């Protein structure tokens, strides 16, 4: 262990096996790496009544609070009001968990995600004296904008913890640049996430076969419309190529509605026989899907540090990704990059990889080695520990509510606070009236 032993806390609404998305996967892997290095790690997370139980990783203390928000309709809440009520309830649980723990225990630093503004109440608690770090994943309001979805003003509450925290980091420079006009901080640092490549898939096999693979939610920001448009061109030029898209459906199709239905509607009957759509599948099956693929395509409009890219690299599969995303940093010279929202550019890149076997094999071997060299849990843990210690030193080991509040830009208060106040007032009014709200308008 390099440096003194730290007592590290993570506040997260995701932690396996519950809500095991990108945040949950990251927290599980980095917390295990910290514990294996001799540090004391505490996870503050949630558990719904019907969630399965699990054995926590050795050395990691997981504190699971029941997550039981009132039934939305019982409180007169529907649509966005119900979603906002869930956000507020979640933030309240996290604040209470952290406060109760700190009354009996000690931490040296606490890391909080910006997503869903999970930690905004904790950061507003004067009892919180522990230095805090916000780790940027991708704010919900950014996702909504990329999907061309209406964004309620209260979702900009995610900016509060970003600006209030004692330190802010992100796994990619792309994420920092994307938020540069929204977030008033000039001290955000790049600290990459870990990935246990051998824990996902072991052994290198060269890319063979005719399958091109996409993994991810079927949503607009993932570039799936561009992918299908490019796939149509490929299907016309290559009689053997097939496409597989693995991921759950979303309601982000143009004009709203099922994206899967929309994508299938772009294909002819003949093309549909060579484009396969699968829902999310178990992890071991996903590993085999990567092994079968010739290469992977992730043509997102924007990504921060996506696990699917790390998974493809772990399997030794070449990746076609888009400029302006964190995947450019992740892949480096091992990637093939295209402009986002450009079907012709994507089709040309796919055709080049299909026809150039030597290039495909070279990139495959390089990606396999890169993820196992650069993003190991041990290396990522060391980077993060060094960052934590810088934040702790800058704070003198103590966080202060007055300083956290002073960091928040006046424009951020003007954007988030009035909308939140109006929303809470509407929620209370609807609940007191005992009848469902009929308004779906943005507050």
Number of helices: 18
Q: What is the rounded distance between the termini?
A: 50 Å
Shape category = globular
- Order of adjacent strands in the largest pleated sheet: 3-2-1-4-5-6-7
Q: Report the CATH C-level class of the largest domain.
A: Alpha Beta
The low-confidence runs, each spanning 5 or more residues with pLDDT under 50, are: 72-78, 430-443
Q: Which short descriptors sum up this protein?
A:
single chain, 443 residues, alpha/beta, Rossmann fold, seven-stranded parallel sheet, six-stranded parallel sheet, 18 helices, 14% strand, globular, disordered C terminus
What is the secondary structure topology, with strand pairs?
Blueprint: E1 7-11, H1 22-36, E2 40-47, E3 60-66, H2 79-102, E4 109-113, H3 120-123, E5 132-135, H4 140-146, H5 159-164, E6 167-170, H6 173-178, E7 189-190, H7 197-200, E8 211-215, H8 224-237, E9 242-246, H9 259-265, H10 269-272, E10 275-278, H11 283-292, E11 295-298, H12 307-314, E12 319-322, H13 327-331, E13 336-338, H14 343-355, H15 357-374, H16 377-395, H17 401-407, H18 410-433
Parallel strand pairs: 1-2, 1-4, 2-3, 4-5, 5-6, 6-7, 8-9, 8-11, 9-10, 11-12, 12-13
């Amino acid at each position: 262990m390099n440096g003194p032993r730290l007592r590290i806390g993570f506040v997260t609404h995701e932690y396996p096996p519950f809500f095991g998305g990108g945040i949950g996967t990251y927290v599980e892997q980095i917390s295990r790496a910290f514990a294996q290095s001799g540090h004391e790690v505490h996870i503050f997370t949630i558990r719904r009544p019907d969630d399965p139980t699990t054995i926590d990783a050795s050395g990691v203390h997981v504190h699971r609070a029941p997550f039981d928000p009132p039934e939305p309709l019982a409180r007169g809440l529907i649509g966005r009001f119900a979603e906002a009520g869930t956000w507020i309830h979640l933030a309240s649980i996290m604040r209470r968990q952290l406060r109760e723990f700190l009354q009996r225990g000690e931490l040296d630093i606490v890391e909080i995600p910006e997503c869903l503004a999970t930690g905004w109440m904790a950061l507003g608690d004067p009892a919180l004296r522990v230095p805090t770090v916000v780790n940027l994943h991708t704010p919900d309001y950014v996702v909504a904008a990329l999907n061309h979805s209406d964004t309620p003003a209260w979702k900009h509450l995610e900016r509060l913890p970003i600006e209030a925290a004692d330190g802010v980091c992100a796994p990619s420079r792309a994420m920092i640049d994307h938020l540069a006009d929204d977030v008033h901080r000039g001290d955000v640092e790049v600290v990459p996430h870990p990935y246990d490549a051998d824990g996902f898939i072991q052994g290198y096999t060269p890319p063979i076969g005719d399958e091109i693979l996409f993994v991810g939610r079927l949503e607009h920001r993932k570039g799936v419309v561009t992918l299908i448009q490019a796939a149509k061109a490929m299907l016309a030029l290559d009689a053997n190529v097939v496409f597989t898209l693995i991921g759950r459906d979303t309601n982000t199709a143009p004009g709203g509605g099922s994206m899967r239905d929309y994508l299938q509607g772009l294909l002819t009957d003949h093309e549909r026989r060579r484009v396969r759509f699968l829902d999310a599948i178990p992890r071991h099956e996903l590993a085999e899907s990567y092994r079968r693929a010739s290469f992977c395509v992730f043509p997102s409009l924007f990504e921060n540090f996506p696990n699917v890219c790390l998974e493809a690299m772990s399997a030794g599969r070449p990746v076609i990704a888009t400029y302006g995303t964190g995947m450019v940093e992740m892949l480096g010279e091992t990637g093939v990059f295209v402009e986002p929202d450009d079907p012709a550019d994507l089709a040309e890149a796919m055709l080049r990889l299909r026809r150039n076997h030597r290039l495909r094999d070279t990139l495959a071997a390089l990606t396999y080695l890169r993820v196992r060299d650069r993003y190991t849990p041990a290396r990522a843990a060391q980077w993060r520990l060094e960052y934590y210690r810088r934040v702790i030193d800058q704070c003198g080991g103590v966080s202060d509510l007055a300083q956290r509040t002073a960091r928040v830009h006046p424009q951020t208060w003007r954007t988030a606070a009035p909308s939140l106040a109006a929303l809470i007032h509407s929620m209370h009014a609807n609940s007191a009236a005992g009848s469902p709200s009929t308004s779906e308008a943005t507050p």
